[in-house]
Amino acid sequence: MECPQCGSVIDPPAVCPNCQRYEATVASSQQQSLPPPPPLKTPAFGQPAPSSPASPQPREMWETIVTTICIVPAIVISMVLHAGILFSGIWGGVGGCIGATLVTLIKHFRNPTDGLDAAKDGKATAALVLGIIGMVAWIIPIIGFPISITGAILGGTGMQSTKQGQAIAGIILCEIGCVAGLINSMVVAALQIHR
Question: Which pLDDT does position 82 carry in this prediction?
Answer without folding.
Answer: 79
